[in-house]
Amino acid sequence: MTSKLPKVAWIGLGIMGSPMSENLIKAGYEVTGYTLEQEKLDRLAAAGGTAAGSIAEAVRDADVVITMVPASPQVEAIAYGSDGILDNVRSGALLIDMSSITPQTSVELAKAAAAKGIRVLDAPVSGGEAGAVEAVLSIMVGGEQADFDEAKPLFEALGRTVVLCGPHGSGQTVKAANQLIVAVNIQACAEAVVFLEKSGVDLKAALDVLNGGLAGSTVLTRKKDNFLNRDFKPGFRIDLHHKDMGIVTDAARNVGAALPVGAVVAQLVASLRTQGDGGLDHSALLRAVERLSGARV
């Protein structure tokens, strides 16, 4: 029996893309994937997907193309050119970019795709690796209502909170705001951790009680163990959060919004990268506070 579900091409099988594509396979979608690392293609095939040898091969028969790559340059690289998505996908297909990129890049991609009869949604996500694995991501979408309605069942296989935020680029703008809030929240938690430890308080007990009150947050729930165990294996890398802080500070400047605290945290994230911590999880902001406090790193 052939599936009535749309055929999906998935480009980009990293920390987020791999578990997300697997959740679509579990939901009954036929997924053909392409990424640069062979072991990620092997993982997709083992999960019941089909590995393609190129972008062109992956998207040729697709009804829906989903992209999940690190930043604007990678989105442009896979979308444009003779080997890219726009030149090889059929007219009428739906392209859903779930990467976190600049709102402007999303707007330009939608315009270029429309000229070829291809519809686009920008649909960045929040929730990190755990959210991707558990299919509880928050998905913020920019684009047309009809395209959003068509994509909604697919989004619901990937996340729990799915919202159309406005026209093309709106999803990226909301994602930028999300990354601002997350970075400032992690920074505040990191400062609290160092303060508590230097004060000789039982850190686990303190974080448990703080998380039960107004200071509680999804960030603290998700990152508490990272802080307690100094486990900075990346769920979301500092390098990527640095990119996102660049997006939000630039976009805010363009619209005339002041981000005084965000600007400081953006600098702290940047300093972590220059100290060689770019590959660590963003909870490693704790290391920056420790360095400033003369504590262990």
UniProtKB/TrEMBL annotation:
Keyword Calcium: no
Highest taxon, organism lineage: Bacteria
NAD is among the record's keywords: yes
Gene3D superfamilies to which the protein is assigned, alphabetical: N-(1-d-carboxylethyl)-l-norvaline Dehydrogenase, domain 2, NAD(P)-binding Rossmann-like Domain
Species: Streptomyces vastus
Domain 6-phosphogluconate dehydrogenase NADP-binding per the UniProt entry, residue ranges: 7-166
Keywords on record: NAD, Oxidoreductase
Signal peptide: none
PANTHER family reported for this sequence: 3-HYDROXYISOBUTYRATE DEHYDROGENASE-LIKE 1, MITOCHONDRIAL-RELATED
Protein name (record): 2-hydroxy-3-oxopropionate reductase
Domain named 3-hydroxyisobutyrate dehydrogenase-like NAD-binding: residues: 169-288
Pfam family, one: NAD_binding_2
Similarity annotation: Belongs to the HIBADH-related family.
InterPro entries (alphabetical): 6-PGluconate_DH-like_C_sf (IPR008927), 6PGD_dom2 (IPR013328), 6PGDH_NADP-bd (IPR006115), HIBADH-like_NADP-bd (IPR029154), HIBADH-related (IPR015815), NAD(P)-bd_dom_sf (IPR036291), Tartro_sem_red (IPR006398)
